[in-house]
Amino acid sequence: QVQLVESGGGLVQPGGSLTLSCVGSGFTFRDYGMGWYRQAPGKERDAVALISNTGRRTVYARSVMGRFTISRDNAKNTVYLQMNDLEPDDTAVYFCKTSAAGGFWGQGIQVTVSS
Hints:
Blueprint: E1 3-7, E2 10-12, E3 18-25, E4 34-39, E5 46-51, E6 58-60, E7 68-73, E8 78-83, E9 92-98, E10 104-105, E11 109-113
Parallel strand pairs: 2-11
Antiparallel strand pairs: 1-3, 3-8, 4-5, 4-9, 5-6, 7-8, 9-10, 9-11
């Protein structure tokens, strides 16, 4: 069955960096676009960054442009989100999503930016 497992979250100070990873299984990873989304308490889940199946095309939310980078390694069935210059407003649960299986979500991982 389709599975997405996120890792790399945690607590970081403002201005710090984190890299999230998401490993996919149960589908042909290289055939599908992937994305990172986030949901802060009391807010809707929003797209942060999207990447095409080949990795050649990426799209970013305006709020993270220039600070976050999405990438993928199809040999490792993994998509990454490099997050730099983190701000308290980046605090949220981050979710990985594949367009496979009609759209499938990972379980989410907490990122907290606080001093």
